[in-house]
Amino acid sequence: LLEPVKKDNANEYNIWNTAFNGVNSQTQFAAGIFPQGGTFFGCWAPLATDSDLRIYAGVNIASMQADKTTPVSVCALLSDDEAVRSSKYEQEWNGFWHFANVMQFLPKFMAATKTGIAKMSYMALTVPTSTPSATAIAVGTDSWDDVYSMLFDDETKAFAKKLEDARLPKPDDYGLELEGDSGEIVATIEMVWTDKKIAFITQDVIDDRATIEAQGWTVITSETELNSDIWGGND
């Protein structure tokens, strides 16, 4: 992810720093300083043009020279504003969450959305700095607006509204790609409640229900009658 050849390119650095610091100023996920000329940095996008997803990485050169184990700070930033989404948004939305699921155990990682940054939603988050396994991947505060910003299709959004109205728990993950025994992707879960192992899927992938349930998940759909017992509560 790093592009050392760009170290002294002021224009490239300014573009990178604006995006990277926009996330870091709210989340403080990347400790230290990242000065121009003293930072190895890079930006990667899955599409050559009109990409809604960008991955930013950076490391202080002096810190890395002093300690070769200095972690690279990485953030995934999704442009989720409905007014400017590209035709490939759904594909990149899935890629955003797949990348977050894979990279979440890095000691310096954050996944964020542009609407969340614009709303200052991440100011309320506390990101652990000592335990890599607890690195935060969050989409905002207690507001359901941030949940809706992570949802792509109308069926999922409508079901999320029912959850909100019923005052049921928010999902804590989105677009989870479930792997089979050989590591292949066997199903995609639109909304996830990790601790309860509850999975919401849409009707267009209902044929995957048995596969998901076989891995120990409780599957809910837009036709599920909502009650708190599903989440271990009482009506």
Describe this structure in words.
The chain is α/β, with parallel strands linked by helices and 235 residues long. 28% of the residues lie in helices and 20% in strands. The protein has 7 helices and 8 strands; from the N terminus they run αββαβαβαααβββαβ. It has helices at 10-27, 61-66, 89-103, 114-118, 145-148, 154-165, 209-213; strands at 39-44, 53-60, 73-78, 109-113, 173-179, 185-193, 198-200, 218-220. Strands 1-2-3-4 form a 4-stranded mixed sheet, sandwiched between helices. A 4-stranded mixed sheet has the order 5-6-7-8.
Comma- or semicolon-separated keywords:
alpha/beta, 235 residues, elongated, single chain
